[in-house]
Amino acid sequence: MKTLFQSKKGNVRFKNRKKLQIIFLSIIGSIIIIIFILEIFIRLCPASPRTKLPTCKEIIDSYFADMQNISEVEKLNLMLRTFFPTKPFTLLNIDEIANNQVKQTERNKIGGANGISCGKIAFISSDLPYFAKKYVRLHEALHLVGIRNETLANYLAGFKEPLGLVQTVYVSLIPSTKKRIGIYSFPCYIGNVWKTFKTYFVFWKE
Ligand SMILES: [Zn+2]
Fold first, then answer.
1. Percent of the chain having pLDDT more than 90?
2. Domain edges within the chain
3. 93, 192, 196: which is closest to 138 by C-alpha?
4. Between 68 and 108, whose confidence is greater?
5. How remote is the CA of residue 63 from the centroid of ligand 1, in Å?
6. If you ran DSSP here, which 8-state letter would residue 148 be given?
7. DSSP state of 88
8. 18 CB-near residues (< 8 Å, 6+ apart)
9. Distance from the CA of 148 to the center of ligand 1, in angstroms?
């Protein structure tokens, strides 16, 4: 009797394990299929024409040329402080770098991007909302201290400014949400959401 009971119990355990395996494989399979469909959506839908990014020289020149209300001496001082900071760049003084070396400028001057880093100085778009601005500022500061990988900079900045990351992703999605979502453009909208998600969170892109 005892052995029979034990084997029954074992059988149930085996069946449960098999059930779990099937559920697990179904979830993995569904995810793969969904990603595959999303990738098709991205490729079928016309990519929004990206404005050509201006060169760093163009951005820096226009940034300093725009300062009409400050004297030439002050302008020179600002340039010196920007390009030759007194403290070296490290991760420890990242907030200081973010506040001193990352400048705000108009979005059209940085080719419509949220932010651009140019060696020792970086620029962020002045129209970003509060938390997104903090996040993009930190992201660009991380580039200034030598973190080149976009996704890594996103995760590190997102760790410190999680609200900013959410707001930045949301803001990045607005242009596609503004277009009318018809039955035919819906796949393109979903594809665009997936593309934005990949831009921010996926290390492996293509
Ligand atoms: Zn970046």
1. 41
2. 1-44, 56-201
3. 93
4. 108
5. 19
6. -
7. P
8. none
9. 7
pLDDT by residue (tens digit) across 81-122? 888 877 788 888 899 889 989 999 999 899 888 999 998 899
Please state, in angstroms and rounded to a whole number, the distance separating the CA atoms of residues 10 and 62. 75
Q: How far is the CA of 117 from the centre of ligand 1 (A)?
A: 7
- Cα(131) to centroid(ligand 1), Å: 17
Q: How far is the CA of 149 from the centre of ligand 1 (A)?
A: 7
- 46 Cα to the center of ligand 1, angstroms: 24
Distance 200 CA to ligand 1 centre (A): 10
Mean pLDDT in residue range 168-179: 73
The Cα-based distances of 116 to 3, 66, 111, 122, 153 in angstroms read 71, 18, 9, 6, 13
Distance 139 CA to ligand 1 centre (A): 6
CA of 187 to the centre of ligand 1 (A): 28
Residues in the chain: 206
Whole-model pTM: value is 0.77
Strand pairing class (121-125; 115-118): antiparallel
